[in-house]
Specification:
mainly alpha; Cytochrome Bc1 Complex, Chain F; 4 helices; 63% helix; 0% strand
Length: 108
Amino acid sequence: MALRTTAVLCNSMKKWAYNMAGFNKYGLMRDDCLYENEDVKEALRRLPDHVIDERNFRLVRAIQLSLQKSILPKEEWTKYEEDKLYLSPIVDQVKKERKEREEWEKNY
């Protein structure tokens, strides 16, 4: 019983933190907000064109809303349940490949 209550509370805290971050009010997803270092740029290069187009649309819309000092109507906000990590798995793979390459170059 306590474990179930803890899981519900943990999920509630995740949703609260997600909503407090504020990016969802502009229609952005978590992966849209990643800092674009070399690993993220390589992961973006590997994405299909339609995913890049969707991401660019969300970013341009968010910039426009920010300049207008407004947010989307609440029904258009990105919901916690609908937010999928489309870029993070690819970034993890790129980091793994980079570390493996650095290790190879160091040893051979």
